[in-house]
Design brief:
Largest sheet: 3 strands, antiparallel
Number of domains: 2
Organism: Pseudomonas gingeri
Order of helices and strands: EEEEHEEHHHHEH
Keywords: Cell inner membrane, Cell membrane, Membrane, Transmembrane, Transmembrane helix
Protein name: Paraquat-inducible protein A
InterPro entries: PqiA-like, PqiA-PqiB_transport
Mean pLDDT: 78
CATH architecture of the largest domain: Up-down Bundle
Subcellular location: Cell inner membrane
């Protein structure tokens, strides 16, 4: 049995359990005073909007140069993938692997994973509640690692600034990539995980 079936609502701010009122008016948490809802209002719509926006920005994030490293007045802008290739060519395989996973695989997995969660909840696809919740928790966990490239660029721009001798400049690709990371993190936040359990009465988890 779900908590909502027993007339219990959870506050998403402080996680206090509240007895659902029968008058139907907007209810507030008895502990912190935050608004309490059976499910987050417009959760799916907001998550889809953030996800689609991040998917659109994902294209320029990978196609546009993310930074330009100049030495003695000369420098070529590089995208995320060209940076990974350069690291491989210089024999820096561990660093290349970290950048590839954090900047290519993780954002792609987040986009696909959130889309699968939304589709499975809306279309009642044959995914068990356990599979969905594991996917959701993994997406939340890996979200922070997508900012690795942005942190590295921010540090390099701040430290490597020697005029024409050597300098690092952030490009438009970095802005697009940072936007993708932030939007996917917000999409994971706006998605209400309680929706996962709303259509799983026939799952093996409840047998």
């Amino acid at each position: 049995m779900r908590a909502i079936d027993a007339g219990i609502l959870i506050c998403m701010e402080c996680h206090e359990l509240n007895r659902q009122e029968e008058d139907g008016d907007e209810q507030v948490c008895t502990r912190c005073g935050a608004a309490v809802h059976p499910r987050r209002p417009n959760s799916l719509i907001r998550t889809w909007a953030l996800l689609l926006t991040s998917a659109i920005l994902y294209i320029p994030a990978n196609m546009l140069p993310i930074m330009t490293v100049s030495s003695l007045g000369k420098g070529d802008p590089s995208t995320i993938m060209s940076g990974v290739i350069t690291l491989v060519q210089h024999g820096m395989f561990p660093i290349a692997a970290v950048v590839f996973v954090a900047s290519i695989l993780v954002p792609t997995f987040k986009l696909v994973g959130i889309a699968l969660l939304l589709f499975s909840v809306q279309r009642r696809q044959p995914l068990s509640a356990r599979q969905r919740i594991i996917m959701y928790r993994f997406i939340e966990f890996i979200g922070r690692w997508s900012m690795l490239d942005i942190f590295v660029i921010a540090i390099l721009v701040a430290i490597v600034n020697f005029g024409r001798i050597a300098s690092v400049e952030a490009n438009l690709g970095a802005i697009a990539f940072a936007s993708v990371v932030i939007l996917t993190m917000l999409a994971a936040v706006t998605f209400d995980p309680r929706l996962i359990w709303d259509n799983t009465e026939s799952d093996d988890d409840h047998e």
